[in-house]
Design a protein that fits this description.
single chain; 643 residues; alpha/beta; TIM Barrel; Rossmann fold; FAD/NAD(P)-binding domain; 3 domains; five-stranded parallel beta sheet; 20 helices; 27 strands; 19% strand; globular; oxidoreductase; FMN
């Protein structure tokens, strides 16, 4: 199916959006004092260049104590207007419209980023995230917050935004007032349905009074809370109809609230199916007259097209797709679907950055967040660059160096590209990880100035003979093998070999090492209907090197596969009958057919010492230290671009 309908214009109120593709609000952490920084402007400008019809900017706090993150933007002060006016002017140059999302984080605010001020909420119910008991707002304080929303909306209009989005979802302050799980007030702002809606109603009235009748107002809303006793779509139907009656011009229908453990998350990982949220939008379309924006792991042009053609929604918001490839719309419009760099749902950068309080970054798009500082102009002198290793770090290094006009030769000792990232695509639900490896391979094949040598390991002698200007060492890591008796027996295999089909296992399997690789390998084996799979970890918890949301999903998967988990346990040896396991001072025989080692990896970089006095070298990814894939891609690209 050729994508056509998604490129037709559609109106939100009096504002015509050039196409149906929306960048939803996502925390970028690029505006420490609230003003629009050069980094922030260039980050969004890249999306405007890429052809997105509407960009909704993220989490503009309505006062100095309303933030949930350390560096979100703000427009509560007129002094902040000029920088954001510069921002909107730049976005408008590309024909893209831009809405300003305004919010108060409520009990999900963090005193560490709000001047040590205690979070506030409708009731003193602690947030599951930060565990802090919030200050219960007085009526006068509520009235002041309503006024703050209005002031921020007016400032956004003055700054050139095309519309406003009121954040009434995801467990932030407005959502807290709407939710009976959070709101236990007995005054005019709590108790009955009408009272719980009052805060949002007053905000809508105040914002409308400030911005006028012809300025679009979007409301971001969670169709369901996905919590025990939380709101379901049945009650949301009435709320959505009332929000339309209040004067909303569009509904941006999301799902869930932060801090709630459920099978679906606001930022869904690879465990969640694509388009998982669209049915709620389709239901809303049956009773709403205003447009509806859907969101939730839409990645393929065909799916986006189907959503619009079938009438499930009027717009498709694609947050992480826009991070992975800001030029998704232009590529889809040109029919160049194979050129699209897809989000793989890993959460290693987009979500992790919010916890870390740093600007957003991405595994598959190492350029993200660096748009303001990376120089893509051709180098004055074309250099010869050798790259050792064709994993994702090595391929990103080669791609970046090729952009600069250098001549690159990649040396890979295996018969294929991808390195450890190949086996990373084999565990349950992770098949789409292979799309990144495939995309990189297609990219390096496009460049005539890149030569790929497979089945060839780079040596110091080769470097000394050719004398390249620079060598980038992306040789990766090797598995850690414990020094215990019997570890080289035939019944002991490596997790990577199991995932790649190089080693078979018996029906009873012990996986040693409960980090990400070991836990995923145990799930992989469990789904193969082995009679018994046991996972042992020396620490007191498994998968601690994974993002929290994915870790919870993986634990659910392990439970469904009946994988037994033993923590505080290490391997002391291997025999033909099984493994010797150590718990405390006790060592016992654990009978099993196969022992799978997933204890970890260590850097592999034999050339570093040999070449240190021979030529300029850069070491990237696991060759520096065994870490996550995101360090390999980001460091590799940076090394190539600065060659």
């Amino acid at each position: 199916m050729k994508a056509e309908k998604i490129f037709t214009p559609f109106r939100i109120g009096d504002c015509e959006i050039p196409n149906r593709l929306v960048v939803p609000a996502m925390v970028a952490n690029m505006c420490p004092d609230g003003t629009a920084t050069e980094q922030y402007i260039k980050y969004h400008e890249e999306k405007a260049k890429g052809g997105w019809g509407l960009i909704i900017t993220e989490d503009y706090r309505i006062n100095e104590h309303a933030a949930g993150y350390p560096a979100v933007a703000a427009l509560y002060d007129e002094l902040q207007i000029p920088g954001h006016k510069k921002f909107t002017d730049i976005i408008h140059q590309y024909g893209t419209k831009v809405f300003c999302q305004i919010y108060h984080a409520g009990r999900q605010a963090n005193h560490n980023v709000n001047g040590n001020v205690k979070p506030v909420s409708c009731s003193p119910v602690p947030c599951p995230w930060n565990k802090e008991i919030p200050h219960e707002l007085t009526v006068d304080e509520i009235k002041q917050l309503v006024n703050d929303f209005g002031i921020t909306a007016l400032n956004a209009k003055k700054a050139g935004f095309d519309g406003i989005e009121i954040h009434a979802a995801h467990g932030y302050l407005v959502h807290e007032f709407l939710s009976p799980n959070c709101n236990h007030r007995i005054d005019e702002y709590g108790g009955t349905y009408e009272n719980r809606m009052r805060f949002l109603k007053e905000i809508m009235e105040e914002v409308r009074q400030k911005v006028g009748d012809n300025f679009p107002i979007s409301v971001r809303f969670s169709a369901q809370e996905n919590s025990e006793g939380g709101r379901r779509m049945f009650e949301s139907r009435q709320m959505l109809m009332d929000i339309e009656e209040m004067g909303a011009d569009v509904i941006h229908l999301s799902n869930g609230m932060y801090g709630v453990r459920s099978s679906v998350g606001i930022v869904a990982s690879f465990f969640q199916q694509h388009g998982w949220n669209m049915d709620f939008a389709a239901e809303a379309k049956t009773f709403l007259k205003i447009p509806v924006i859907t969101v939730g792991r839409v990645a393929e042009p065909a799916m986006a097209e189907d959503i619009i053609v079938s009438g499930k929604a009027d717009f498709v918001a694609m947050g992480r797709a826009s991070l992975a490839d800001p030029h998704w719309p232009n590529k889809a419009k040109a029919g160049a679907n194979n050129d699209i760099r897809h989000c793989i749902g890993c959460l290693q950068g987009c979500t992790a950055s919010t916890y870390q309080g740093v600007p957003v970054y991405c595994l598959v798009n190492p350029e993200l967040g660096h748009e303001y500082e990376y120089d893509y102009s051709k180098s004055e002198k074309s250099k010869t660059i050798f790259v050792a290793g064709a994993g994702i770090g090595g391929m990103e290094a080669a791609r970046a160096a090729a952009i600069k006009g250098h001549r690159i030769e990649i040396f890979e000792k295996q018969n294929t590209v991808g390195g450890q990232f190949i086996s990373a695509s084999y565990p349950p639900y992770k098949g789409e990880f292979a799309t990144y490896t495939a995309w990189l391979y297609r990219e390096i094949k496009k460049y005539k100035n890149i030569t790929l040598h497979l089945n060839t390991e780079l040596t110091a002698e080769m470097v000394k003979k050719v004398k390249p200007d620079k060598v980038i060492l992306a040789s990766g890591a090797q598995p850690v093998i414990p020094n215990v008796p019997g570890i080289h027996n035939k019944n002991v295999v490596l997790a990577e070999d199991v995932l790649l089909g190089k080693s078979d296992t018996g029906m009873t399997v012990l996986v040693v090492g409960g980090g990400m690789v070991g836990s995923e390998t145990a799930a992989y084996l469990g789904m193969q209907c082995k009679s018994k799979v046991t996972l042992v970890e020396m620490r007191d918890a498994i998968a601690m090197d994974m993002e929290a949301g994915i870790r919870d999903d993986l634990k659910d998967c392990l439970r469904r596969c009946y994988v037994e988990i033993m923590t505080g346990t290490s391997i002391a040896g291997a025999t033909n009958e099984g493994a010797l396991l150590k718990q405390g001072d006790d060592i016992t025989l654990f009978p099993c057919d196969t022992i799978v080692l997933a204890i970890g990896t260590k850097s592999y970089c034999p050339l570093a010492e040999e070449l240190k006095d021979v030529c300029v070298i850069s070491i990237v990814g696991d060759a520096v230290k065994a870490r996550q894939a995101i360090q390999a891609s980001n460091e590799g690209f940076a090394a190539g671009l600065t060659s």
